[in-house]
Each structure stands twice: as C-alpha cells, then as structure tokens.
C-alpha cells in the first residue's frame, strides 16, 4: 500500500518549509523531536478529514477495500467521535433506539445530547458487575416488535471482558424488521484478521465502530467508522462527523491509522494465526492451575476470576503492581489483561509467572453477596435531566432522587444509572459497592 498521508508529510519535511502555521511548536519540540515534525495541520495538499478528496480519501478507500465496506472513515478522536457520528446519522429514521444496558458512556452522553429515547435491553450478566453479559435474542426481537418506531439497535460487542454477542443472529433480526444495526466493536478491530473472520462486518452489520488502537498497532485516538449500508452516503457522514469532531484532527494519528492498515494487509492475519499458539499455551497453563477465566472467541482479552481464587481484586492488583504488570481493567471481581501479537515475549513470561504466584496463595472461593440490580425507572428524559439544576448529596440520602449526571465505573465507562432515572435501593447499594460516595441529583 502506498502510504498517502505519511508520504505527504515526509515530503513536506524534506522540503524544509518555513512553518508559519499551527501548531505553535513549528515542528521543533525538543523532548520529541522526531515525532513533532510530523505534527502538521491542514496545509495545502494535506487534504481535510471532514471533506477528504485526496490523500486522506485515498487512505480511507484503502481501509474500505481492506474491510470490504461501502465506505470507511477515519477518526482521530477515537471511537467516541465515531459513535457520535453514527447516532446523529440515524436521527433521520427516528429518535428512538434499542441498546444494551452495558453501552459505553459515549453512547449515553450522545443520546442525551441528541434527545434520543433509549429502550434498554438487560443482558444476562456474567456476574453482578453490570458490565458484561449476553442478550437474549428472543427478548431483542420482541422489543423490536413492541417498538416499531425505533431507528436502530446499538450493540456493544466485544465488551470489556471480551465477550461477544451473536451478531449473525442479531443482524438477521434487524434485517427482518428493516432496522439499522450499529455495533460498537471498539474492542474487536482485530476480529477481521483472525483465522476465522468474526468481525461484525462479516455478518452484515450496517454501521461498525472500530477503536483500532485498543487491539491493533495504532496510536491512541485511532478509530474507524465503517458504513456497510446504502441508507447512508459518504458526504453525509463526513458532514455529520464535522459537527462533533475537532477542526484540527491530528495528522500523526491519521498517519498511524494508515500505517496500521498497511501492516494488517501484509501481516495481520499471519501474525494473529501465530499468536493463537501463544494464547493456547496460556489457556493450557490456566487450565492446569485451575484458574477460572472467561471463555470466548476473542483472542485479545484475558479475564481472570479473582473470587474463584479466594482473592479480592484490590489484593491482586497490589501483587500486579509489585511485579510491574499493568492490566487493562479491574472490576469488583475480574481482572482483564489485553494481549496481542505485539506483546513482548518477556511480558508474557512475567504474566505466566504471576499466574503461578497467585495459584500458590489462593484461598477458598469468595461468595458474592450483592443482590442483582433492579432496573431503575426513567422519570424524565436524559436530555432534560442534563439541563436541570443539580446538587451533590451523599449516597446514603439518594433513595428516590432523580439522577442528574452520568456516573460510570471506570475504566470501561459503563454507567450504573443514567440521567433522569430514579435511584432505587439496589442502585444505591451498587454505587456504594463501587466506592461512590457522592453523586449529582436534580434539585
């Protein structure tokens, strides 16, 4: 592949232009000299992300051909910008949407701003964390039947634990009722390049968001917005993205996306096939040690059940810190490690050593006592809730109050309760369980 964006910047650097344009460092940051010279703006010939017609469009066309889409658009502001664009683009079909309850906060906030009414589907959670689970296809279909005015179905797959929904069946149902399927595939960009392609695009999802920096070799903030439906056109999507996106998209990130795509074309599938042997080795070690982990087809998320080891995650996280191991995510019960073909071999050795260590100090399994959550009632729209005056109160005095601002469990950004919803006893206990002491409620 010709590296359109990088070649342009290389040529610009070689010609040694006097930079009387942004950014203010003029290509000379002493602490990152080699990187800063690539940090340019939309100068003559550099194309425009939201109205691309030359080098950026050529790179995006390559991405579309690689992923076999109608068209694909780059985002230098992560999956959040892609989700904002996707939701805004479906408004012409209605302002009502069905979504999984474990959707990312970027979906929640965008829906609130756009005044989209959300019909929630609660999955069968793998534990009581409200973060991961599988939705019932029959319940989804019945929900579509009962809400004929919805514009789209929004599915998060894979989720933070790596668990994937049955996109093939969900896509079939969406097409049966002529509804748009949007898949937040932020943690599954690599799925297209596994030995068996299980990317949502292979199951005819209409809109797919890939946050490629999460599991592929690209800089943070790199994302792709795939459009696989003739209901949308490229100019419209580009225009919609410009409403939310920065007017100064980072060219280093755009170049990073392009380089990542070039790598994927040449070596992606081969490297992931080789990587599968490493994964199987780790799985076998965990099985031999009787360490429980979440099983799924996603090759990059390794989610360990700490309760099964008789340990709380705060204790395990201290051990990880002492061994200089930084996991992706720590929930109340699971620790998630993101692994990939680009993980150094000695880091795998360190991880395996950690597994042997915690096996030696394991205790009797912990029984989780927190009750299942009772879905909260929506009393006013999230859009209206955001505009209301609010006050900070202690969680002990929150029962029956109306939530004012999204409160998430970080890092996955899954809200426990949404703006406009009434706080019930189970919600209050969950907030306390996650260490949240003060919240914003409507006055």
Describe the structure.
There is one protein chain. The protein has 443 residues and is an alpha/beta fold. The chain has helices at residues 4-14, 33-36, 55-67, 78-90, 105-113, 137-146, 167-176, 234-244, 251-289, 313-322, 345-360, 382-387, 425-433, and strands at 71-75, 96-100, 117-121, 124-125, 133-134, 152-156, 180-184, 207-210, 223-227, 301-305, 329-330, 334-338, 390-394, 407-409, 414-417, 438-442. The strands form five sheets. Strands 1-9-8-7-6-2-3 form a seven-stranded mixed beta sheet, with helices on both faces. A three-stranded antiparallel beta sheet has the order 10-12-11. A two-stranded antiparallel ribbon has the order 4-5. Strand 14 and strand 15 (414-417) form a beta hairpin. Helix 4 crosses helix 5, helix 4 (78-90) packs across helix 8 and helix 9 packs parallel to helix 11 (345-360). The chain starts with a helix and ends with a strand. The mean pLDDT is 92.
Q: Layout of SSEs?
A:
Elements: H1 4-14, H2 33-36, H3 55-67, E1 71-75, H4 78-90, E2 96-100, H5 105-113, E3 117-121, E4 124-125, E5 133-134, H6 137-146, E6 152-156, H7 167-176, E7 180-184, E8 207-210, E9 223-227, H8 234-244, H9 251-289, E10 301-305, H10 313-322, E11 329-330, E12 334-338, H11 345-360, H12 382-387, E13 390-394, E14 407-409, E15 414-417, H13 425-433, E16 438-442
Parallel strand pairs: 2-3, 2-6, 6-7, 7-8
Antiparallel strand pairs: 1-9, 4-5, 8-9, 10-12, 11-12, 13-16, 14-15
Helix pairs in contact: 3-9, 4-5, 4-8, 9-11
